[in-house]
Amino acid sequence: MEKASIVGKLQDLVISTTEGNINTTIARSLLKKVGHDVADISIESLAEECFTSTASISRFSKKLGYSKFSDMKQAFIDYQSNTKKFINKNNFELSINQRDSSHSLNEYIKKITQSFQELEKNLDLEQIDHLCERIYTTENVYFFGTHSSGLLLEQLQYLFFSCGKYITYFNGRMSQRKAFQQIEKNSLVIILSTEGNYFLKFSDLLFNMSSGDNYTVLITQNDQMKIANIFDEVLFLGNSTIKKAAPYQAQLFIDILYSRYCQLYS
After folding, report:
1. Are 253 and 127 in contact (CB under 8 A)?
2. Cα(236)–Cα(91) distance, integer angstroms
3. pTM for the model
4. How would you class 243 by CB atoms within 10 Å of its CB: exposed for 0-12, middle for 13-18, buried for 19 or more?
5. What is the pLDDT of residue 95?
6. What is the DSSP track for 195-207?
7. Per the database record, which ranges form the HTH rpiR-type domain (predicted)?
């Protein structure tokens, strides 16, 4: 079962809970604190901020899977710490410093341009056309992806709508877990995961999916994933010296995929 982060749980709760519900109020209040120091927050101050009781905060903590408020608070602190490390690592990898901003900007754009060139080397228009054909001829098509990949897929879903093709994509981890369990036979399942982090969250469902009667496609930058072997087809975006370039590659790939689909079937 997926071990969702505290922020993931809060986001799923906000999406699935009726507006005006006290749980929605508490979740929104906590999400607003993601970029701030929460080490000093108390159950009393949170209850006062949300115009509710400490008992409601305790029930909310248990609803999210924590035995008590202090455990939920610690999960929040751990999330902030891990996120800070991740952001610092990515910013160190590719950043624009103030001392030599012109040179830094040039290097930044140069790295992104190189990632596009890597995509071009790996791009097989015939393979893309075959994928377009599958999308066109398959009645039930599903997109799966989270974070930046999810945003791109949501955009692509709307683009396909405009071409008269309905594709299923649900935002949010819990919604995607439910969608996995409702996939109909002989469907086309397309997963976009630039680095492969998607598999850390949904590995149990992915193996079940691969043993079904569906055609599965993985789009990724990471060509070292052993789990890629469970897919019927893998489209590589191309290697890049920096992870931060992966979303740019994915955006360009999606633009090309949609362009080819429109040319062939619009």
Report:
1. no
2. 24
3. 0.69
4. middle
5. 56
6. SSTHHHHHHHHHH
7. 7-83
pLDDT tens, position by position, 190-246: 999 887 777 666 776 776 666 568 899 999 888 777 778 888 999 998 877 777 788
Contact 220, 236 (CB under 8 A): yes
Q: Tell me whether strands 141-144 and 215-220 are parallel, antiparallel or unpaired.
A: unpaired
Instruction: Give a yes or no: residue 105 inside a domain.
Output: no
Residue 255 and residue 148 share a domain: yes
Residue 35 belongs to what domain range? 6-90
For residue 144, the SS3 value is strand
- With respect to residue 257, please indicate whether it lies within any of the assigned structural domains: yes
**Strands across the sheet with 215-220, in order?**
141-144, 188-192, 215-220, 233-236
CATH number at residue 174: 3.40.50.10490
Residues 48 and 159 in one domain: no
H/E run at residue 219: strand 215-220
- How confident is the model at residue 26, as a pLDDT? 93
Looking at the 3D structure of the chain, how many domains does it have?
A: 2
The confidence score (pLDDT) of residue 38 equals 73
In a domain, 97, yes or no: no
Q: Judge whether 106 lies within some domain.
A: no
What does DSSP assign to residue 183? Answer: P
Q: Residue 37: which CATH number?
A: 1.10.10.10
Task: Judge if 244 and 139 occupy the same domain.
Answer: yes
Q: Are residues 251 and 162 in the same domain?
A: yes
Question: 3-state DSSP call for residue 18?
Answer: coil
Express each pLDDT in 148-203 by its tens digit: 888 899 899 989 988 889 999 887 777 787 888 788 889 999 999 887 777 666 77
Q: What is the DSSP letter of 263?
A: H
Both tokens of 260, joined, read: 């080819």
Residue 40, CA distances (Å) to 9, 170, 214 in order: 21, 36, 50
